Amino acid sequence: MKIYIKIFIICIWLFSCDSKTNKINLPPYPTINKKLVTENICDTTVNDYYRNLENAEDSLVNNWYKQQGDYASNILSKISGKDGLAKSMQDLSNRKSYRVRRTNIVADDQYFFLKKMPNEKKFKLFYKSGYDGKDEFLYDPNTFKPETKHDYVINYIRPSWNGQYVVVALTYEGREVAEMIIIDMKTKKPLAEIIGSSWAASFYGVDWLPDNSGFTYLHFPNLSKNNKRAKTNTQAVLYKIGQNPKNITPIFSPQNNPELNLDITSYPIVEIDNPNQKYAIGYMVNVSNYFDAYYTEIENLDKKKVNWKPLFTKKDKVYKTACEIKNDTITFKSAYGASNYQIAQTRLSSPDFKSPTIIVPENLDEIIGEFKEMPNSLFFTTTKNGVQAKFYQLDKNEIKEIKLPKESGSISLRSYNNIDLFVTIRGWLNKSERYLYSSNDNKFTYLPLSPIINYPEFKDFIAKEIEVINQDGVNIPLSIIHHKDTELNGKNPVFIYGYGAYGDIEKPAFSPIFLTWVANGGVLCIAHVRGGGEKGEAWHLGGMKLNKPNSWGDLITCTEYLVEKKYSSPEHIALWSSSAGGIMAGRAVTDRPDLFKAVIIDAGVLNPIRREQSYGGSNHKEYGSMKDSIECKGVIAMDAYFHIKENVMYPAILLNAGMNDPRVAPWQSGKFGARLQEVNKSDNPILFHVDYDSGHGNGTTVGKVYDQWANIFSFAFWQTGHPDYQLDKSSLK
Q1: Which one Pfam family would you cite for this protein (predicted)?
Q2: Most CB contacts within 10 A, which of 30, 354, 446, 503?
Q3: Are residues 371 and 508 in the same domain?
């Protein structure tokens, strides 16, 4: 890895020269006959030129997807430096003697975690007794259903409160939808039962009963490929150890509780916070940040008919599942009248979520993040602009800031026994560090879960946090990471990322993969656009539904700033986003194709006009519904596929899609790519990289992750003019 410093010096010199990408005569794209469908939607004529691509079961369409994938793979494989880039990413990761993730700590200081050695492609399940205990191997995903020849990986674990059992969820080829097994710690072997139709890694997992006899989880009764109802009529079910998994026991669902009039597109989950909990809370989860909630005594879950009582509604703006019940006191995080959130309390015997007792008031400069109630006080975190984190304690009605071991971009709080408080801090350039905090002596004890590794190749990098003012006077946070000696000459390759959806915050996190861009002489930027949650609920609302144009408008503003300040120029700027961020990236490139040299979109939402009718789910609550006469206008405005124009010089485009994606249908990328390949007037390549062995980016092997990022970065470097990443034209098929 010492070569990175040399590469950086070389790049400073090379990028001070003009480095436009030479014209490349690529082989013709695979073609398919388009089938135009014209509709009048919301008083707008919508031409859908490639509606036929939505039917991947059609052999002609499926063959076209395969041909597009082969075509893109052939081009990407011919970029010099790509294989070396993938290897350097892997080498950085393998610098640790092992990696650990998904750590769970339960009674008697029992640790359950996933661990991977440098030469392994997958994480395996391990156990140890106590922090200093010896790692004991428990389960290898390669042993699950070997007769299927599927490449299974573990994507979720959850031990019982007493550590007697551990649930392990397994999936393959990016499907995310998982099968769950239960390992009995007495025998260290899986029980015979296999629980299917679950999605534990993404839908709040499983919640063990206090007596460890079973757990609740979300059951998907309609799961099958291309089933438009796959995500509807889901059920929260109770599973008891030894039960036949085919004998489903619903405890909370629209079918089981018709008296509650539950929404069939939301997901009923039942949460049990700790083994001493008296009540279970049932949430109707969807993509919004506020749910309807109900409660019942846990002992009622065994009854044939569970009586759920209303707790609060989404109008009360209790943030997600940030709600704890202890005796008669409910402590919760709320956005009701507080865009930056507040922490409040009310009584279960007479709940009032609109006029509760405020124990931590809203801070107009910082948004409240996580909170954790401990025996004698409450701890909570805040962030400013999503990137500057602080840690506080509420003790006897007094709020005091606790100084962290070092400045942090994000903080997470965990307590496994309601006694020990673990504080984990992260930053763009600071590795994740886990501490045990003692409030008695205000002491942080560093307790890493994996070996401490240094990355000297990143030591001269700097991270700047600025705000860019748009034409309406709105301050948009922008994170910029580069080498301290980077010259602002307008020639640096820039990789800019944004998302702007669901109120998610793009929190600082240390990523050796991302930092390889900077190590190769580039500038890495994160635009914290509206639609995210960096500035609270108002920031989210400012970029959703009819306000969605603010998301790509903010991204464009940040990119223009980078050009104005000579970090780069349009000829050297690559834009990347994924999933719902595809709306922002797709509309940025269709609005301002002149501002970017390359745009890469992974599993992007690019044709939301068709999403609600064809893929189900509750995402219309974020984007807007085509069934609403007002909201549909916003959906049309954010549809990148609809806004592709003829006779326009578009930049280079790389669209990545997995055919097993359970969240965003691959035809969203396919239709967008096909239309661009048809009408683009520039010589820039339009690649549609289809992978039949992946999904939405989750549930896959580590090696595939390196390959995917090597494709993205090498394509971006090629297009932005990096001399080490150029196409071998002589070897093109």
Answers
A1: Peptidase_S9
A2: 503
A3: no
